[in-house]
Structure formats: C-alpha cells, structure tokens
Design brief:
Blueprint lengths: L16 H18 L8 H13 L14 H21 L8 E2 L4 H4 L15 E7 L3 E8 L2 E9 L6 H13 L8 E8 L2 H14 L3 E3 L19 H14 L3 E6 L2 E7 L5 E8 L1 H11 L19 H32 L7 E5 L6 H4 L6 E2 L3 H13 L12
Helix pairs in contact: 1-2, 2-3, 5-6, 7-11
Length: 394
C-alpha cells in the first residue's frame, strides 16, 4: 500500500502564490486556445476558473482555515474541471451526467479546519468496470458507494487517454488520484485492461484485476476459463448481497443471465444480443426501417412502422427475458431441491432500470450498481479492503 504523502499547506492571503497560479492558468488557457495545431480547449472556461481561484485566496470568514477559502477553491476547481471536460468531449470522450448515490463529497470531506492538522490520507477505493459500451467508475469510502460515473468506451484508447478520462471523472466529484488508495477493476476489453495496468503503475496505486483466478467464486461449467470476469463479479455480489440460489440478468451490450447455485458457485447461464444492439442492427441492415425509441408499446399489434418495431423488439425482448429467466429459475430450483420462488432474480446493467425491464416477471431486485459492489466485495475479500456497506438495492 502506498504511504500517505505530506500534508499540503494552506496558502495564506498574504502569500501571492495562489494569485500567481491563477494568472498562470489563465495565460496557459489563452495559449492553448490560440496555438496552431493545439487541441481545442475551453479557454474561456479555464480563465473563469482561474479568476475564481484568485478570488479564493482571501482568508476564511471564520478565520479557522488560516488560508484559502475552501468554498472558493471548490467553485474554482469545478469551473476548471467543467472546462476540461468540455475540452475532453471534443477529443472523443463522452460523459454522462452525475448519478448521485448515498452520501456526498461534502460529507466525505478532507477537513483542514479547526481541530485538524491539515493532513490527508487516501482512503478511497476506485472501482472500474470496463465494458464494451461504457466505462463505469465507482468511488467507495469505508465500503460505501459514494459516486458513480460513466463514459463511452473507446477500445483503442491509449494509457494516456484512459488516465486523462479517469482523472476527469474523479475531478467531477472534487476528487483526484491522490484520494485513491487502491483500484479494483474488471474488463471485457483486453486493450483497456493493459492500459489500466499502466495507469496504476504510473500512479503507484495497487490494482486488483478480476479474473477466474482472483474472484472467490467456484466455477462449475465445461470451460471455466472462458467465463467473463464481469459475470463472476456479478455472481459474487449476488451471493453476498441478495442470497442464493440466484439469477443475475445483466442488460447491457449483450444480455447475460448468470446463474448462481445454492452454494454460491457459478453454474452457467445464457447470453443473447442486447436490446439496443438488436435495434441498431435492424436499422443498419435494412433500407427503410428507422432506429426507434426504446419504449414498450401499449399493444402488441403495431398500427405503424414505429410501433410495429417497438412491439417486435421491446415486447419480443421482454418475452425472451421472461422465458429464459423462468427456465433457468426452474432448473436452479430443481438442482438445489427448492422451489422456483426460492431463486432470487436480480436485474443489473445499463438498461436494468428501464420501464420495459421493470415489467419483467418475478424480479426480486433491481441493482444497477451490482458489478461495482461486486468489485468492492472482491477487494475486501481478496485485497484486504473495507467490507461493503450493505443497504437496500437501488
């Protein structure tokens, strides 16, 4: 584990270094914005942040911090981060909006006020779920999931680009790699797995990669080595949080059903093309059929092209999912000597909270963060991290 660094001193109002920094940032923003061949940057946004940083150099009103106004610095940091993210969007990374979870960074805090020595020790776990469509990150403190972010996956991204992405996502929540003590990840994109390993080495942060050899779940299939790490992480989370036997239906680029036996072992499942993948293929491979909104129609008999496509895809997918879940549920119940009602069904993945998914039969829980929680559990059980703070599934 990395040793905590020295305390970062506060900058008093009599110290001009903060103002000098603000001026330098503003000058750099203008240079970047005007340089020939340079990446397009949001110079105006960075300059606004620099001005806010200069303003923040006044003493705290209560006189307790003895230096920079924390609120002012936070506002400046947010302006500059948002400007950086706007720049990042132009470079190809696309970010979703913040998804607030239990707690907040205001509650987490890095206190330097009265009664504190000004030092800070990294206590955050960064969980990274690299999927075919999205890179999802989760920040955990003392086992509790504090924030979650998501960006579009770019499979050919370099280590430099991935590092920039992760740093930008952290800064959206007023955090940085300095706050991260360890990283745990699962990935279905080998090139980004290698890139993340390089990032962790640069930042000197321990990295635990989920795999068949690291996830503490027995695999009872014909070819255990072929089982995806994300499926094993889901099985681990389902067993620890929701109980067994269980089925995890993960709705993403692909739809996977991960079946967990009564003893917690991964016993197999099903894989089907994801719903959005099917809609995209239909629009791309036909001349006159449009890409339609992902919405369940009121009737199975469509009265126009759009409602007919929605019927065939959305209602058809509901039937596919219901049928597979029912059959897997019956087989798990038979194998464990229980009844189908004893088999827990948990929905997760990017589409798990969609209205059409909520209409599936016999669902016990919808937990979009199941994979992130599974990574935190893996880190706790294998890497010696904090136990997951259990709560009601979202």
């Amino acid at each position: 584990m990395p040793q905590p660094g020295p305390a970062v001193p506060l900058i008093g109002s009599s110290d001009g270094s903060a103002r000098a920094l603000a001026s330098a940032v503003g000058d750099a923003a203008a240079d970047v914005g005007s340089a020939d061949g340079a990446p397009e940057a949001d110079a105006a946004g960075l300059s606004e942040g620099a001005a806010a940083l200069a303003t923040a150099t006044a003493f705290d009103a209560a006189g307790e911090t003895g230096g920079v106004s924390a609120a002012g610095l936070q506002a400046a940091a947010r302006m500059m981060t948002e400007a950086a993210v706007r720049t990042s969007r132009r470079g190809g990374w696309a970010f979703t909006d913040r998804i607030p979870l239990a707690g907040s960074w205001a509650a987490v805090g890095r206190a330097t006020g009265s009664g504190c020595d000004g030092s800070y020790h990294p206590v955050m776990l960064l969980a990274v779920d690299i999927g075919n469509t999205n890179v999802t990150t989760g920040l955990f403190r003392n086992g509790a999931l504090i924030e979650r972010r998501r960006a579009t996956t770019h499979a050919r991204a370099s280590a430099d680009e991935l590092e920039h992405l992760l740093d930008a996502l952290l800064r959206l929540d007023d955090a940085s790699f300095a706050d991260v003590s360890s990283i745990v990840a699962c990935s279905v994109v080998p090139s980004l797995t290698a890139a993340l390993e390089e990032v962790a080495a640069r930042r000197e942060r321990p990295l635990l990669i989920a795999s068949a050899g690291t996830v503490p779940v027995a695999v009872r299939t014909d070819r255990p080595a072929d089982v995806g790490a994300d499926r094993l992480v889901n099985a681990l989370a389902a067993a620890r949080i929701h109980g067994t036997p269980a089925i995890v239906a993960d709705f993403g680029t692909a739809t996977t059903l991960d079946c967990v036996g009564a003893d917690g072992a991964f016993v197999g499942g099903a894989i089907a093309p994801g719903l959005e993948l099917g809609l995209d293929a239909l629009a791309a491979r036909t001349a006159k059929l449009p890409r339609v909104e992902l919405r369940a129609p009121d009737r199975a008999i469509g009265r126009d092209t759009v409602s007919a496509i929605q019927s065939g895809t959305v209602l058809g997918y509901q039937a596919l999912a219901n049928g597979l879940i029912a059959r897997c549920r019956a087989e798990l119940a038979e194998a464990s000597g229980s009844t189908p009602g004893d088999v827990r069904v948990i929905l997760t993945g990017g589409l798990s909270a969609a209205p059409w998914a909520r209409g599936l039969d016999g669902v016990d829980a919808i937990d979009p963060d199941l994979t992130l929680k599974g990574l935190a559990i893996l880190h706790a059980e294998v890497g010696g991290g904090q136990p997951l703070e259990l709560g009601l599934p979202r």
